[in-house]
Amino acid sequence: AVLLGYCVKVEIDHRLRTRGLAGTAVITAMNGRRVIRDSPDMRVDVTLRVTSPEGEEFETWTTATLPIVGMPQVGWEVPVRYSPRDRYRIVLVGDAAPPDLGPPSHPMER
Fold it and tell me: I need a labelling partner for 33 at 20 to 30 A (CA). Which of 46, 61, 81, 106 fits?
């Protein structure tokens, strides 16, 4: 039963990555769940404030596998994809990054 549930989740995540609506999210909270044995990653519950392509904002959460080294922080932005029918079905689809601090006065100052 656990394996079947895992396979269903993998399929749903694949569909979201290929057919989901693109959005940008800000990480508003993180709660580490467990370190994955023999892996540099950790399972983390991530609370997100998502902005849709139309500019609408909503809050949701998901469980993601993230690297322990370079772990994203609260306030960082991350690209997401979510279901057009159920926007609370969501996956992270790229690397998280600190929020833009505005353009530097000189391109080499970043």
Answer: 81
CA 25 from chain center: how many Å?
Answer: 7
- Residue with the bigger pLDDT between 36 and 19: it is 19
Three-class SS of 43-57: EEEEEEEEECCCCCE
Three-state secondary structure call for residue 90: strand
Taking the whole predicted model, whether its pTM rises above 0.90 is answered as: no
Q: What does the alpha-carbon distance between residue 66 and residue 81 come to, in Å, rounded to a whole number? A: 17
What single-letter amino acid sits at 78?
Answer: V
Which residue from 3, 74, 69, 64 is spatially nearest to 34, judged by alpha carbons? 64
107, 87, 93: which is closest to 64 by C-alpha? 93
